[in-house]
Design a protein that fits this description.
Layout lengths: L3 H12 L6 H20 L2 H17 L10 H22 L15 H19 L3 H12 L2 H6 L2 H23 L3
Helix pairs in contact: 1-2, 2-3, 2-4, 3-4, 5-8, 6-8
Length: 177
């Protein structure tokens, strides 16, 4: 498996117009993105379609790649959007949603992808003011102490603003989401 630094280097070179780096970049990203999509969707054939669409969009937007951002996270963000879109389409059509593989069936690559996404999320959270982090934490953990300290409307409005700032921070760091 290609390491993160190699993917970063290849992505930067491809964004600078180096055509020779496109094929190795695709070869490095393909197994990671397909594995991520398969875990996300629980359907190998749909995962390949989503991974292909994500990489087509990614390579079409190479000129928008910011060199100070993480290339692998940017690629997985594209894959996430494609997987969500595919999942919504499948649900609208009333197709059966397959369950994800059991926890013990996960391999090392899946765990690595999970770690990368968690690190990206934590890094993004660190860019937010402490007040926003507190509101988000209270929401995720059902912290009743903070909820009781604020009027319900105030809590909802602060949560809305914190989520907005979180989205903006994620977009600025990792592309669209």
């Amino acid at each position: 498996m290609t390491d993160r630094a190699a993917i970063q280097h290849l992505m930067s070179a491809a964004a600078d117009g180096d055509r020779a780096s496109v094929e190795p970049l695709f070869a490095a990203l393909w197994p990671i993105v397909v594995g991520y999509a398969a875990k996300f969707l629980g359907d190998a054939s749909l995962a390949e379609d989503c991974a292909q669409d994500a990489l087509v969009k990614l390579f079409g937007q190479l000129d928008r790649f910011e060199r100070d951002r993480d290339a692998l996270t940017w690629a997985l963000t594209h894959a996430t959007w494609q997987c969500r879109t595919a999942r919504r389409r499948r649900e609208r059509r009333g197709e059966t949603v397959l369950e994800a593989a059991p926890e013990e069936a996960r391999d090392e690559r899946d765990a690595a992808i999970d770690r990368e996404l968690v690190h990206a999320a934590l890094d993004t959270l660190e860019t937010l003011p402490a007040r926003d982090r507190e509101i988000l934490y209270a929401t995720l953990t059902d912290d009743d102490e903070l909820r009781r300290a604020l009027a319900p409307a105030t809590f909802r409005k602060r949560l809305e603003r914190a989520l907005g700032r979180l989205r903006l921070s994620w977009r600025s760091r990792h592309g669209t989401l």
